[in-house]
Each structure stands twice: as C-alpha cells, then as structure tokens.
Amino acid sequence: GRAQEGNDSPFAGVYPSTDTTVPQREQDIAQAKQLMEAAGAGKGFKITLTTERYLEIPEYAQLIQNWVKEIGIELELNILDQSAYYGDAVFGKSNWLDSVMGITDYGHRGVPNVYLAAPLKSEGTWNAAHFKNKDYDQLATSYIAALDLEAQKAAAGKIQKLLLEETPVIFGYFYDYLTATAKGVAGVQPTAMSQLFLEKASKA
Q: What is the enclosing helix (H) or strand (E) of 122?
C-alpha cells in the first residue's frame, strides 16, 4: 500500500503522459520457462546480482533471489555500500554500470525525460543494460520533443509497448514519497524531489 506497480517502463501513473491503456504485465511462469528453453538455458544458470545497501533494495534483491528459483536461476547477491556500488559512475569504473545484473534506485523527476534517455538510449550515460535499439531512440527523441500532451501520450504508448517486448530494464514499482511535519502544521505541499512548497503552510 505504499507504492504503485510498475510495468517495465519509466512511465509511472503520476505522469499525465503515461498511456494507461497499455496492459499490465502479469506473471507467467510457463512462458518464462519456455523463453529460458528457447535461449538455451532450460536447465537454469548461475548469476550475480550486484546492488546497493539503500532503503528497501537489499530486501527487494532477496525477494528476486527467491522468485527466480522457480525458473532455475541461482542468484548470488553482492550488496555493496553506495560509494562502492556507484564508484566513479562511468563505464569501466562503476559496479552500477559494469555489473552483469543490478538494482538501482532512481530519484523522482517532474517529467520522465531523463529516465527515457540516460538508462535506455543507445548512447545513454546510465545504460547499464547496454540496450541499443534505433526504434526506441527515435521514439524517445519524439517524446521529448513533443509539444502537447496528446503527442506525448502517442509516443509514450509506443515506448511502453516496445519496452514490454524488449525489457532491457525492469521497473518493478514506484514507491510513494512520504514526508512528515510537526503536529499542528498544515498546508505543506511536498514533492518526491524533496521540495517543500510552503505558500499555504500554517501552524495551529
């Protein structure tokens, strides 16, 4: 009750441009096993998931470790302090960008543009998945250049469907941003970017 389910794209429900008609992906173990077989990994494999010690992420990694056993994947966890995980934040000097499989937290942005470009475009500076897809690059460029909401939604729907098909990155959930005020304080408007708008704030 403290997050929204993701659908493997950066388009969270909070964004007005999200195409809500795109179906939510559902768990399908039988299909997952078929895909493993088709990839020549029907007997499973071992892999290391590298991530950071931050908020709920270590527990999330443990959940994934348990879930993937059902399709024969033996997942070893490598959970690092944030400084060791991010390193120099450039390819070749960062566990974040260089690991075979990882979990990374993204802070909220007012629009999804940075998530569409940095981790997913072919030359993206956060593209740890090494995802390269010319169709995606063009769609992301079109979305970012769109001048009205309808054009954004049209591009967003195509992006959402393409990412569901390709799934270079799993966007599992978008957690609610929670904050607190002192007792008797009202009218404080927070944002998920740690901003506080105080023009309507008052104290009893």
A: none
For residue range 15-64, list pLDDT tens digits in order: 999 999 999 999 999 999 999 999 999 999 999 999 999 999 999 999 99
Answer for the pair 198, 185: CB distance below 8 angstroms, yes or no.
Answer: no
State the total domains in the chain.
Answer: 1
Q: Which two tokens stand for residue 204?
A: 């009893």
Range of the domain at 73: 3-203
**CATH number, domain containing residue 115:** 3.10.105.10
How many Å apart are CA 165 and CA 38, to the nearest integer? Answer: 16
Helix/strand/coil for 25: coil
Tokens (6 digits) for 150: 């309808």
* Collapsed DSSP state (helix, strand, coil) of residue 133: coil
* Contact of 24 with 5, CB cutoff 8 Å: yes
Q: How many other β-carbons are positioned within 10 Å of the β-carbon of residue 151?
A: 14
The pLDDT tens digits of the residues spanning 89-144 come to: 999 999 999 999 999 999 999 999 999 999 999 999 999 999 999 999 999 999 99
